[in-house]
UniProtKB/TrEMBL annotation:
It comes from the Bacteria. Residues 7-158 form the CinA C-terminal domain. SUPFAM superfamilies: CinA-like (SSF142433). This is CinA family protein. Signal peptide: none annotated. It comes from Massilia hydrophila.
Length: 160
């Protein structure tokens, strides 16, 4: 784990603690990397509830209440699914705010319109959900690290 990610996780923890917010994560392509970064920070038990690693479409539906029809319509790597993942993490936890990641880390998995490196994010709190789609460059490890860092930076912007 890079120092940049640990620094971001520390800032996230401080921001959540200052606002008395508790976080849940819903991760696909990062495989729990965001949750790992968060729980590296001492005291994270005060502001982190849980992380869902929903790698399969079935787990997104079963654990996060993402409608199978939505996945069929837009694909699991879509802003629509990322938003529902974040909302599902929120409604299936004790958290106040949630983030999600779903993407194609590579080296395979690209589909027309969604090259390797495509990642969709969701951040949700209350009735507000924000989503974003980016395309990162690099190998699988690099895409996953960039995704974790961007998810944490996005959360900071979302709660501030």
């Amino acid at each position: 784990m890079t120092n940049d990610i640990l620094d971001l996780a520390t800032k996230v923890g401080q921001a959540l603690e200052a606002r008395r917010l508790v976080l849940a994560t819903a991760e696909s392509c990062t495989g729990g990397g965001v949750s790992q970064a968060i729980t590296e920070i001492p005291g994270s038990t005060g502001w982190f509830d849980c992380g869902f690693v929903t790698y399969s479409n079935a787990s997104k539906t079963e654990l996060l209440d993402v409608p199978a029809a939505l996945i069929a319509q837009f694909g699991s790597v879509s802003e629509e699914v990322a938003g529902k993942m974040a909302e599902g993490a929120l409604s299936n936890s004790m958290a106040d705010v949630a983030l999600s990641t779903t993407g194609i880390a590579g080296p395979t998995g690209a589909v027309p319109g969604k090259p390797v490196g495509t990642v969709c994010f969701g951040w949700s709190r209350g009735d507000t959900t924000y989503t974003e789609r980016l395309v990162f460059q690099g190998d699988r490890r690099s895409v996953r690290e960039q995704t974790v860092a961007h998810a944490l930076r996005g959360l900071l912007r979302f709660i501030e």
